[in-house]
Structure formats: structure tokens, C-alpha cells
Amino acid sequence: MSLEFLWYIPNQVEPGHRGDDIVDGHNSLDTLTRQAQALEKHGWGGALIGTGWGRPDTFTVATALAARTTTFQPLIAIRPGYWRPANFASAAATLDHLTDGRVMINIVSGKDHLAAYGDSDGEQADRYARTKEFIQLVRKLWTEEDVTYRGEHFSVDNSTVTPRPVVRGGRRHPRLYFGGASPAAERVAATEADVQLFWGEPLDGVAERIERLRRLSAELGREHAPLEFGLRVTTLVRDTTEQAWADAEAKVARMANGTGTIGHNPNWRAAVGQRRLLDLAARGEVLDDNLYTAPGRFGGGAGTTWLVGSAEDVARSLRKYAGLGITHFVLSDTPYLSEIERQGNQLLPLLLG
Questions:
Q1: Does residue 163 have a cis peptide bond before it, meaning omega lies within 30 degrees of 0?
Q2: What is each CA distance from 175 to 1, 56, 75, 193, 230, in whole angstroms?
Q3: Calpha distance 148→160 (Å, rounded)
Q4: Is it the case that residue 80 has pLDDT exceeding 80?
């Protein structure tokens, strides 16, 4: 199976996300378009665009960037509760139709400022039960006509979405990515998602989770094509291994002083996936060959562990993940624009050649 390589485009109100160097017009359409067009030019498939209340609306940003590009695929993060499933299914199908099948979706169920947009914060089991219904209903609306659905959280009567998503080869609708490390989240992924996204955990942890999700898929009677797997990780690439580690350690020192990242999410410590990152940092600062865990201590605006090294070092590590069954990669580093070019020129040829 071919590998997919995506990037990350920040849609933030404040500048300086993860140490990015663009300040003036950092979230203007021109700035974000330059990033999307650079992704097309340098071999990337598209980019994840994150979501959260207090940020620019993700779907609007994705639509604007899709209109200014030709091959760029937005991986649009969305939340059940912010969207009703029928409204979302229609919006996504319309954008997919207008872009000739470039839309991808990342379903997010983590905590947010829910009350600000009229949602409520139920127990974890309720949140994931709602997410499961949301995915089930959206998929039905994309692939069936005159849909009637009765669930605990969502219902529709005789609903047909038009226009329809693009159908091409084995693609029946936009691919549905999903994250989450709790048992409740994994049960949703095993039965309903197309791609399960992992944070940058060590190889043994990823292998264990892939095996567990495959087993869950069989036990729970998954009805769709086999679940695929993705990795969201920062890749800090420099011309030499030594320079990469020097820069990585300097970045973490700035983060420790509170100068290397802003916009922390107050809910990040509550997420199972983020707690796993904290546990990794306790195991050691460097795991496997070059997985740097120290950034995971800062969470929120720092986010993930980092793969650090030369292009050859990082490519070697990514190929090991691919050997476990990872086929979708979401990479990034800052400054975003220059790293799109650097890693597109140095790293991607080693992985796609």
C-alpha cells in the first residue's frame, strides 16, 4: 500500500505557534495559501488543519485554501457537537464535489470550550457514543439516499445529501480519520473510522496498539474496509545529526522558559493520548533511535514527541513505522513554510523514491 505524507497548517489567532517565525499576517489568507501552495510544489499530499473554539473556523480555512490550490488535500478537523451530522455531511460533500474529491476529515472528540457554542460536556462514554453515531450517520448520508436514522444522540428522516461526494475507484466518500487512546475511543476507531491516528509513540507502543485495534475490529464485527493507521509526529530535520539535536535541545530549552510556544490548551492533560506522552517522557528523553520525548512534557502548544536527525535518520525511523503498518503520516516542524520546503526536498525523496 502506498504511503501518504501530509503536513500541518496552523490556523491560530495568535502568532508564534510552536515557534513559527511569521508574525505579521500569520493567519492571513495569503500566508496560509503560500503554505498550501508550497506543499503542492514540494511533494506533500496536503495538510491537517486543527480545530478548537477560539481559533479560526477550520472548515472555512480549508475551503479558502482548496479554492486557491489544485491538488492540495485539506484534512479538516471537526467536532461532533459543533456540527450536526446532516449539516456537516452536506457541507463536506459540497466541498468534495467542488474540489473533485480532495476532502479528508479528522473527527475530534476531545474536550473543548463546549458551552461557548452550545454543546455540553458529558461523560467520556457518552462523548464517544455520540461520536460513533455521528460517524455512522455521516457515512450513511454520503453513501445512501432517503436515510432515516434513529439514535440516542442524532436522528434524521428521509435525508438525501446533494451534491454527492466524489466516488473514484475504491473511494466512496472523504476518508475519515480519528484519534483517541482511551478504550472507548479505540472501540469507535475499530468499528467506524477509516484511519486511526496515533501520536508519536515508540515503535513497541504503536505495534501494540495496531495489534489491539485489529483484534477489536474482528471482535466487534467491523463492517467497513480494514482500518488503516497514521502517525502524527514532529520531524526536526537538519543537514547533520549533530545540528538537528543541537537545534532540538535549544527549542526545548525555550519551551521550558515559556518562550517557544503559546496558546496552551487547558484540557490537554486530561486527554489519554497526552498523558501517554507524559509517561513516555518519564521513560527517557530519547526512545528508539531518535524519538525525543522531552517536548511532550509541555503539551498544548507543543503537542507531540519529535523525530530528530538528518533526513536519512528520520526517514529510517519513519520506514520502521511503515513496517508496522503505518501508511498515513502527518509531519511538521517550524518555521512552517521553510520546513515544508526543506523536508519536501530532503526527506520525502527518501520515502517516496
A1: yes
A2: 16, 23, 9, 8, 12
A3: 9
A4: yes
Cis peptide before 183 (omega within 30 of 0): no
323 neighbors 299 (Cβ within 8 angstroms): no
Cell 482500518 sits at which residue?
227
Which grid cell sits at 70?
489544485
Amino acid identity of 9? I
Cα–Cα distances (Å) from 265 to 30, 274, 279, 293, 323, in that order, read 27, 11, 19, 19, 33
Its sign, for the CA torsion 264, 269, 273, 277, is positive
Of 124, 164, 126, 130, the C-alpha closest to 144 is: 164
Q: Is 308 helix (H, G, I), strand (E, B) or coil?
A: strand
Q: 202-206, long-range: CB within 8 Å, 24+ apart, which pairs?
A: 202/280, 202/287, 202/288, 202/291, 203/288, 203/320, 203/321, 203/324, 205/276, 205/280, 206/231, 206/321, 206/324, 206/326
Contact 59, 91 (CB under 8 A): yes
pTM (predicted TM-score): 0.93
pLDDT in tens, 81-112: 999 999 999 999 999 999 999 999 999 987 78
Express each pLDDT in 42-60 by its tens digit.
Answer: 999 999 999 989 999 999 9
Closest of 231, 229, 222, 232 to residue 190, by C-alpha: 222
pLDDT in tens, 158-199: 999 999 999 999 999 999 999 988 999 999 999 999 999 999
Q: Is 23 helix (H, G, I), strand (E, B) or coil?
A: coil
CA distance 167 to 175: 11
